[in-house]
Amino acid sequence: MYRNLGACPLIESVVLIPALDVGQPVWDLRLKYDPSAAAGVPPHITLMFPFVPPPDLTEPMIDTLEILIGNTTAFQFSLTRVKEFEQGIVFLEPEPANPFIELTTGISRRFGLLPYGGDFGSEPVPHLTVGILENVSARRQLVKELSGPVPIVVEAEEAWLMVGSNASRWNVVRQMPFRD
To answer: What pTM did the predictor assign?
Structure first.
């Protein structure tokens, strides 16, 4: 969740499902290898990034998002495999993936957005980023470190709308609970 525009941090918004119970090893590795962790973003599965630019966020828009989120029943998922994207991102893959895909697709349709602005296609790929590393050997080491704690079982009970920047701080705008 970072777009480098020189010295000026770009303030953006994100809709995510926090995965607060992933365990201390994942928290520690994210803090070391993912700049969003140091800026206040917890372990999570992204539903939509970027979401609506913060200056354009309105209460009715956020209420609409909360209603859409609230139509989802709380669910359990497992982080089962350590994988990599070719961009140097090491992540944990959630199973089942379908609840995340359905939520992302719903947000996409309702707000006319594509995950990551469509930079990686229109199909969502649910994942929990642990590290962003250019160095191949460092990525291999991170993959090895992550292999010990998986699988990890997590409860998805809510989604968060956050606003901020990795260069400054991310803040929760609204916590939106799932249906019981």
So the answer is: 0.92
